[in-house]
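Consider this pair:
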Amino acid sequence: MEEILISEYDYPLTDERIAKYPLAERDHSKLLVYRDGKVSEDVFYRVGDYIAKGSLLVYNNTRVIPARLVFHKDSGARIEIFCLEPLAPRDYQLALSGTTGCTWKCMIGNLKKWKSGVLSNGILHAERLSTTGNTHEVRFSWEDATMSFAQLLDAQGELPIPPYLNRPTEESDKTTYQTVYSKIKGSVAAPTAGLHFTEKVLDDLRQRGIQTTELTLHVGAGTFQPVKTEDANKHTMHTEIIAVPRKAIEDVLANLGHVVAVGTTSMRTLESLYFIGATRELSVPQFAPYEHDYTISTEEALRNILAYLDETKQDTLHAETQIMIRPGYRFHVVDQLITNFHQPKSTLLLLVSAFVGGDWKTIYDYAMSHNFRFLSYGDSSILTRK
Protein backbone atom coordinates (compact mmCIF):
# COMPACT_ATOMS: atom_id res chain seq x y z
CA MET A 1 0.00 0.00 0.00
CA GLU A 2 1.48 3.33 -1.09
CA GLU A 3 2.74 5.50 1.76
CA ILE A 4 0.71 8.62 2.63
CA LEU A 5 2.83 11.16 4.50
CA ILE A 6 0.66 12.93 7.06
CA SER A 7 3.16 15.81 7.14
CA GLU A 8 1.87 16.75 3.69
CA TYR A 9 -1.58 17.40 5.18
CA ASP A 10 -0.58 20.18 7.51
CA TYR A 11 -1.43 23.88 7.62
CA PRO A 12 -0.84 26.66 10.20
CA LEU A 13 -3.99 26.64 12.35
CA THR A 14 -3.54 29.15 15.18
CA ASP A 15 -5.80 29.42 18.22
CA GLU A 16 -7.40 32.67 17.05
CA ARG A 17 -8.65 30.89 13.91
CA ILE A 18 -10.64 28.39 15.98
CA ALA A 19 -14.24 29.48 16.60
CA LYS A 20 -14.75 29.22 20.36
CA TYR A 21 -18.47 30.00 20.09
CA PRO A 22 -21.04 29.73 17.28
CA LEU A 23 -22.60 32.72 15.56
CA ALA A 24 -25.83 34.05 17.09
CA GLU A 25 -27.69 32.81 13.99
CA ARG A 26 -26.33 29.44 13.00
CA ASP A 27 -27.33 29.67 9.32
CA HIS A 28 -25.45 32.98 8.87
CA SER A 29 -22.03 31.30 8.86
CA LYS A 30 -19.82 31.74 5.83
CA LEU A 31 -20.02 29.08 3.12
CA LEU A 32 -17.04 28.16 0.95
CA VAL A 33 -18.11 26.76 -2.43
CA TYR A 34 -15.80 24.41 -4.34
CA ARG A 35 -16.73 23.19 -7.81
CA ASP A 36 -14.61 22.29 -10.84
CA GLY A 37 -11.44 23.37 -9.10
CA LYS A 38 -12.77 26.86 -8.41
CA VAL A 39 -13.48 28.44 -5.03
CA SER A 40 -15.99 31.13 -4.11
CA GLU A 41 -17.95 32.05 -1.00
CA ASP A 42 -21.47 32.83 0.15
CA VAL A 43 -23.63 32.61 3.28
CA PHE A 44 -24.86 29.23 4.52
CA TYR A 45 -28.57 30.03 4.31
CA ARG A 46 -28.12 30.14 0.51
CA VAL A 47 -26.62 26.63 0.36
CA GLY A 48 -29.59 25.56 -1.76
CA ASP A 49 -28.22 27.66 -4.62
CA TYR A 50 -25.41 25.09 -4.98
CA ILE A 51 -27.45 21.88 -4.82
CA ALA A 52 -29.27 20.69 -7.94
CA LYS A 53 -33.03 20.22 -7.87
CA GLY A 54 -33.87 16.56 -7.36
CA SER A 55 -30.79 15.91 -5.21
CA LEU A 56 -30.94 13.95 -1.95
CA LEU A 57 -29.54 15.53 1.21
CA VAL A 58 -28.49 12.92 3.81
CA TYR A 59 -27.91 13.98 7.42
CA ASN A 60 -26.92 12.30 10.67
CA ASN A 61 -29.66 12.51 13.31
CA THR A 62 -27.47 11.52 16.27
CA ARG A 63 -27.77 13.54 19.48
CA VAL A 64 -24.87 14.34 21.81
CA ILE A 65 -25.25 12.95 25.32
CA PRO A 66 -23.88 14.54 28.54
CA ALA A 67 -21.20 11.85 28.63
CA ARG A 68 -18.80 13.42 31.16
CA LEU A 69 -19.44 12.40 34.78
CA VAL A 70 -17.64 13.75 37.84
CA PHE A 71 -17.15 11.82 41.09
CA HIS A 72 -15.32 12.80 44.28
CA LYS A 73 -13.52 10.37 46.56
CA ASP A 74 -13.72 10.71 50.33
CA SER A 75 -10.29 12.33 50.15
CA GLY A 76 -11.77 15.05 47.95
CA ALA A 77 -9.98 13.85 44.80
CA ARG A 78 -11.93 14.65 41.65
CA ILE A 79 -12.35 11.74 39.23
CA GLU A 80 -13.77 12.43 35.77
CA ILE A 81 -15.31 9.58 33.76
CA PHE A 82 -15.96 10.16 30.07
CA CYS A 83 -18.35 7.58 28.57
CA LEU A 84 -17.26 6.68 25.03
CA GLU A 85 -19.46 3.80 23.94
CA PRO A 86 -21.60 1.06 25.53
CA LEU A 87 -20.19 -2.43 26.02
CA ALA A 88 -23.00 -4.25 27.84
CA PRO A 89 -25.52 -3.98 26.46
CA ARG A 90 -23.70 -3.09 23.24
CA ASP A 91 -26.73 -1.34 21.72
CA TYR A 92 -26.82 2.38 22.50
CA GLN A 93 -30.56 2.58 23.03
CA LEU A 94 -30.63 -0.46 25.29
CA ALA A 95 -27.70 0.87 27.34
CA LEU A 96 -29.24 4.34 27.70
CA SER A 97 -32.74 3.06 28.49
CA GLY A 98 -31.56 0.48 31.06
CA THR A 99 -32.80 0.96 34.63
CA THR A 100 -30.51 -1.33 36.62
CA GLY A 101 -27.01 -0.98 35.23
CA CYS A 102 -24.75 -0.86 32.18
CA THR A 103 -21.09 -1.10 31.24
CA TRP A 104 -19.27 1.47 29.08
CA LYS A 105 -15.86 1.97 27.55
CA CYS A 106 -14.57 5.13 29.22
CA MET A 107 -11.67 7.49 29.55
CA ILE A 108 -10.81 8.46 33.12
CA GLY A 109 -9.33 11.70 34.32
CA ASN A 110 -7.10 11.64 37.45
CA LEU A 111 -6.94 7.85 37.25
CA LYS A 112 -3.97 7.70 39.63
CA LYS A 113 -6.34 8.69 42.44
CA TRP A 114 -8.71 5.80 41.67
CA LYS A 115 -6.70 2.66 42.18
CA SER A 116 -9.62 0.49 43.33
CA GLY A 117 -13.06 0.52 44.90
CA VAL A 118 -16.45 1.82 43.82
CA LEU A 119 -17.04 5.53 43.27
CA SER A 120 -20.40 6.95 44.26
CA ASN A 121 -22.11 10.32 44.20
CA GLY A 122 -24.99 9.09 46.30
CA ILE A 123 -27.11 8.07 43.31
CA LEU A 124 -24.83 6.64 40.67
CA HIS A 125 -22.06 4.11 41.38
CA ALA A 126 -19.03 3.40 39.16
CA GLU A 127 -16.74 0.36 39.28
CA ARG A 128 -13.67 -0.01 37.05
CA LEU A 129 -13.55 -3.56 35.69
CA SER A 130 -10.57 -3.60 33.32
CA THR A 131 -8.14 -1.48 31.34
CA THR A 132 -7.10 -1.66 27.68
CA GLY A 133 -4.59 0.94 26.57
CA ASN A 134 -5.90 4.33 27.66
CA THR A 135 -9.54 3.23 27.94
CA HIS A 136 -11.33 1.45 30.75
CA GLU A 137 -14.36 -0.77 31.17
CA VAL A 138 -16.61 0.83 33.80
CA ARG A 139 -19.75 -0.67 35.27
CA PHE A 140 -22.46 1.82 36.33
CA SER A 141 -25.24 0.89 38.73
CA TRP A 142 -27.96 2.65 40.69
CA GLU A 143 -30.83 1.72 43.00
CA ASP A 144 -33.67 3.88 41.61
CA ALA A 145 -35.30 1.64 38.99
CA THR A 146 -37.53 4.52 37.85
CA MET A 147 -34.44 6.24 36.39
CA SER A 148 -32.80 5.22 33.11
CA PHE A 149 -29.10 5.75 32.47
CA ALA A 150 -30.03 8.45 29.95
CA GLN A 151 -32.00 10.30 32.64
CA LEU A 152 -29.09 9.99 35.06
CA LEU A 153 -26.72 11.42 32.44
CA ASP A 154 -29.13 14.29 31.78
CA ALA A 155 -29.30 15.02 35.49
CA GLN A 156 -25.63 14.59 36.40
CA GLY A 157 -23.55 14.56 33.22
CA GLU A 158 -21.83 17.35 31.36
CA LEU A 159 -21.97 17.88 27.60
CA PRO A 160 -18.44 17.12 26.27
CA ILE A 161 -17.52 19.98 23.94
CA PRO A 162 -14.31 19.51 21.89
CA PRO A 163 -11.02 19.83 23.81
CA TYR A 164 -9.60 22.34 21.30
CA LEU A 165 -12.19 24.93 22.38
CA ASN A 166 -10.10 25.17 25.54
CA ARG A 167 -12.98 26.32 27.72
CA PRO A 168 -15.54 24.72 30.05
CA THR A 169 -18.97 23.69 28.81
CA GLU A 170 -21.51 26.49 29.16
CA GLU A 171 -25.30 26.40 29.40
CA SER A 172 -25.62 27.68 25.82
CA ASP A 173 -23.67 24.68 24.48
CA LYS A 174 -26.58 22.42 25.45
CA THR A 175 -28.47 23.98 22.53
CA THR A 176 -25.81 25.22 20.14
CA TYR A 177 -23.82 21.95 20.17
CA GLN A 178 -26.83 19.98 18.91
CA THR A 179 -28.21 19.97 15.37
CA VAL A 180 -31.84 21.06 14.99
CA TYR A 181 -32.71 17.56 13.75
CA SER A 182 -30.83 15.58 16.43
CA LYS A 183 -32.96 12.92 18.12
CA ILE A 184 -31.15 9.58 18.58
CA LYS A 185 -28.98 9.82 21.70
CA GLY A 186 -25.49 8.35 21.65
CA SER A 187 -22.76 10.70 20.37
CA VAL A 188 -20.01 12.19 22.51
CA ALA A 189 -19.26 14.77 19.80
CA ALA A 190 -21.61 16.59 17.45
CA PRO A 191 -21.73 15.94 13.69
CA THR A 192 -20.74 19.57 13.31
CA ALA A 193 -21.49 20.13 9.62
CA GLY A 194 -25.14 19.92 10.60
CA LEU A 195 -24.88 22.72 13.15
CA HIS A 196 -25.43 25.32 10.39
CA PHE A 197 -28.88 24.05 9.45
CA THR A 198 -32.08 25.69 10.66
CA GLU A 199 -35.69 24.73 10.02
CA LYS A 200 -35.84 27.68 7.63
CA VAL A 201 -32.91 26.34 5.58
CA LEU A 202 -34.42 22.84 5.50
CA ASP A 203 -37.78 24.24 4.37
CA ASP A 204 -36.04 26.23 1.64
CA LEU A 205 -34.30 23.09 0.38
CA ARG A 206 -37.57 21.16 0.23
CA GLN A 207 -39.25 24.01 -1.65
CA ARG A 208 -36.43 23.80 -4.19
CA GLY A 209 -37.23 20.13 -4.81
CA ILE A 210 -34.32 18.80 -2.75
CA GLN A 211 -35.22 15.70 -0.74
CA THR A 212 -33.87 14.88 2.71
CA THR A 213 -33.30 11.59 4.48
CA GLU A 214 -31.58 10.61 7.72
CA LEU A 215 -29.31 7.97 9.18
CA THR A 216 -27.44 7.51 12.46
CA LEU A 217 -23.74 7.30 13.26
CA HIS A 218 -22.87 7.91 16.90
CA VAL A 219 -19.72 10.04 16.92
CA GLY A 220 -17.02 8.82 19.32
CA ALA A 221 -14.06 10.57 20.88
CA GLY A 222 -11.92 8.95 18.21
CA THR A 223 -13.01 11.73 15.87
CA PHE A 224 -10.50 13.96 17.70
CA GLN A 225 -7.71 11.38 17.64
CA PRO A 226 -4.69 12.83 15.81
CA VAL A 227 -2.67 10.84 13.31
CA LYS A 228 0.60 10.19 15.14
CA THR A 229 2.25 7.98 12.52
CA GLU A 230 4.17 9.59 9.66
CA ASP A 231 2.56 7.11 7.25
CA ALA A 232 -1.18 7.71 7.62
CA ASN A 233 -1.84 4.12 6.57
CA LYS A 234 -0.39 2.98 9.91
CA HIS A 235 -2.99 4.97 11.87
CA THR A 236 -5.72 2.83 13.46
CA MET A 237 -9.23 4.13 12.78
CA HIS A 238 -11.86 3.93 15.51
CA THR A 239 -14.89 1.71 14.94
CA GLU A 240 -18.26 3.44 14.72
CA ILE A 241 -21.75 1.98 15.00
CA ILE A 242 -24.20 2.92 12.26
CA ALA A 243 -27.95 2.53 11.82
CA VAL A 244 -29.49 3.15 8.42
CA PRO A 245 -33.27 2.90 7.95
CA ARG A 246 -34.62 1.04 4.93
CA LYS A 247 -36.14 4.32 3.70
CA ALA A 248 -32.72 6.00 3.62
CA ILE A 249 -31.26 3.13 1.57
CA GLU A 250 -34.21 3.27 -0.84
CA ASP A 251 -33.86 7.06 -1.10
CA VAL A 252 -30.15 6.79 -1.91
CA LEU A 253 -30.81 4.06 -4.46
CA ALA A 254 -33.40 6.26 -6.19
CA ASN A 255 -31.06 9.26 -6.28
CA LEU A 256 -27.66 7.82 -7.21
CA GLY A 257 -25.58 10.51 -8.87
CA HIS A 258 -27.21 13.26 -6.83
CA VAL A 259 -26.38 12.39 -3.21
CA VAL A 260 -25.28 15.18 -0.84
CA ALA A 261 -23.74 14.11 2.49
CA VAL A 262 -24.04 16.47 5.45
CA GLY A 263 -20.74 15.94 7.22
CA THR A 264 -18.03 13.34 7.28
CA THR A 265 -20.10 11.04 9.51
CA SER A 266 -22.84 10.81 6.87
CA MET A 267 -20.13 10.39 4.24
CA ARG A 268 -18.48 7.47 6.05
CA THR A 269 -21.85 5.82 6.64
CA LEU A 270 -23.00 6.17 3.04
CA GLU A 271 -19.73 4.95 1.57
CA SER A 272 -19.69 2.03 4.02
CA LEU A 273 -23.03 0.88 2.58
CA TYR A 274 -21.30 -0.01 -0.66
CA PHE A 275 -18.87 -2.41 1.05
CA ILE A 276 -21.58 -3.89 3.28
CA GLY A 277 -23.63 -4.67 0.18
CA ALA A 278 -20.62 -5.87 -1.80
CA THR A 279 -19.30 -8.24 0.87
CA ARG A 280 -22.57 -9.02 2.70
CA GLU A 281 -20.67 -8.43 5.93
CA LEU A 282 -21.99 -6.13 8.69
CA SER A 283 -18.57 -4.74 9.54
CA VAL A 284 -16.35 -2.65 7.25
CA PRO A 285 -12.62 -2.96 8.07
CA GLN A 286 -10.37 0.07 7.80
CA PHE A 287 -8.70 -0.91 4.54
CA ALA A 288 -11.56 -2.79 2.88
CA PRO A 289 -11.70 -0.24 0.01
CA TYR A 290 -8.06 -0.84 -0.91
CA GLU A 291 -7.53 -4.56 -0.46
CA HIS A 292 -9.90 -5.87 -3.11
CA ASP A 293 -10.98 -4.73 -6.56
CA TYR A 294 -14.75 -4.59 -6.20
CA THR A 295 -16.64 -4.85 -9.50
CA ILE A 296 -20.18 -4.85 -8.11
CA SER A 297 -22.20 -1.72 -8.96
CA THR A 298 -23.42 0.64 -6.25
CA GLU A 299 -27.00 -0.12 -7.24
CA GLU A 300 -26.46 -3.86 -6.83
CA ALA A 301 -24.72 -3.37 -3.47
CA LEU A 302 -27.64 -1.35 -2.12
CA ARG A 303 -30.13 -3.89 -3.42
CA ASN A 304 -28.20 -6.61 -1.58
CA ILE A 305 -28.71 -4.69 1.67
CA LEU A 306 -32.44 -4.34 1.01
CA ALA A 307 -32.63 -8.08 0.32
CA TYR A 308 -30.84 -8.75 3.61
CA LEU A 309 -33.35 -6.57 5.47
CA ASP A 310 -36.18 -8.49 3.79
CA GLU A 311 -34.66 -11.84 4.73
CA THR A 312 -34.11 -10.83 8.36
CA LYS A 313 -37.40 -8.89 8.62
CA GLN A 314 -35.66 -5.70 9.76
CA ASP A 315 -36.51 -2.07 9.00
CA THR A 316 -33.04 -0.75 9.85
CA LEU A 317 -29.54 -1.87 8.94
CA HIS A 318 -27.33 -2.08 12.05
CA ALA A 319 -23.62 -2.39 11.31
CA GLU A 320 -20.12 -1.17 12.21
CA THR A 321 -17.57 0.69 10.16
CA GLN A 322 -13.88 1.41 10.54
CA ILE A 323 -13.59 2.75 7.00
CA MET A 324 -10.65 5.02 6.23
CA ILE A 325 -11.31 7.40 3.36
CA ARG A 326 -8.00 8.81 2.21
CA PRO A 327 -6.30 9.76 -1.08
CA GLY A 328 -6.67 6.86 -3.50
CA TYR A 329 -10.22 6.07 -2.39
CA ARG A 330 -12.84 5.60 -5.14
CA PHE A 331 -16.21 7.07 -4.16
CA HIS A 332 -19.33 5.02 -4.77
CA VAL A 333 -22.24 6.97 -3.27
CA VAL A 334 -21.58 10.62 -2.39
CA ASP A 335 -21.43 13.40 -5.00
CA GLN A 336 -21.37 16.51 -2.80
CA LEU A 337 -20.18 17.06 0.75
CA ILE A 338 -21.14 19.77 3.23
CA THR A 339 -18.45 19.98 5.89
CA ASN A 340 -16.62 22.28 8.29
CA PHE A 341 -12.87 22.96 8.27
CA HIS A 342 -10.85 20.24 9.95
CA GLN A 343 -7.71 20.00 12.04
CA PRO A 344 -4.28 19.70 10.40
CA LYS A 345 -2.90 16.17 10.02
CA SER A 346 -6.30 14.59 10.67
CA THR A 347 -8.08 11.69 8.99
CA LEU A 348 -10.91 14.11 8.17
CA LEU A 349 -8.52 16.26 6.16
CA LEU A 350 -7.41 13.11 4.31
CA LEU A 351 -11.09 12.44 3.52
CA VAL A 352 -11.56 15.95 2.13
CA SER A 353 -8.43 15.60 0.02
CA ALA A 354 -9.67 12.32 -1.42
CA PHE A 355 -13.02 13.89 -2.28
CA VAL A 356 -11.57 16.90 -4.11
CA GLY A 357 -8.86 14.98 -5.94
CA GLY A 358 -6.01 16.24 -3.77
CA ASP A 359 -7.04 19.91 -4.13
CA TRP A 360 -7.49 20.50 -0.40
CA LYS A 361 -4.77 23.18 -0.22
CA THR A 362 -6.65 25.40 -2.67
CA ILE A 363 -9.69 25.22 -0.39
CA TYR A 364 -7.84 25.76 2.87
CA ASP A 365 -5.62 28.52 1.50
CA TYR A 366 -8.75 30.40 0.44
CA ALA A 367 -10.39 29.85 3.84
CA MET A 368 -7.27 31.06 5.66
CA SER A 369 -6.88 34.17 3.50
CA HIS A 370 -10.59 35.07 3.64
CA ASN A 371 -11.02 34.92 7.41
CA PHE A 372 -13.10 31.76 7.66
CA ARG A 373 -13.67 30.40 11.17
CA PHE A 374 -12.37 26.86 11.79
CA LEU A 375 -13.45 23.59 13.46
CA SER A 376 -16.68 22.64 15.24
CA TYR A 377 -18.27 26.07 15.75
CA GLY A 378 -16.65 27.50 12.63
CA ASP A 379 -17.82 28.12 9.07
CA SER A 380 -18.90 25.64 6.45
CA SER A 381 -18.16 24.49 2.92
CA ILE A 382 -19.95 22.66 0.14
CA LEU A 383 -17.61 20.57 -2.00
CA THR A 384 -18.45 18.89 -5.30
CA ARG A 385 -16.56 15.69 -6.00
CA LYS A 386 -13.72 16.09 -8.46
User: Anything to note?
Assistant: Residues 119 and 126 are 5 Å apart (CA to CA). The mean pLDDT is 95.
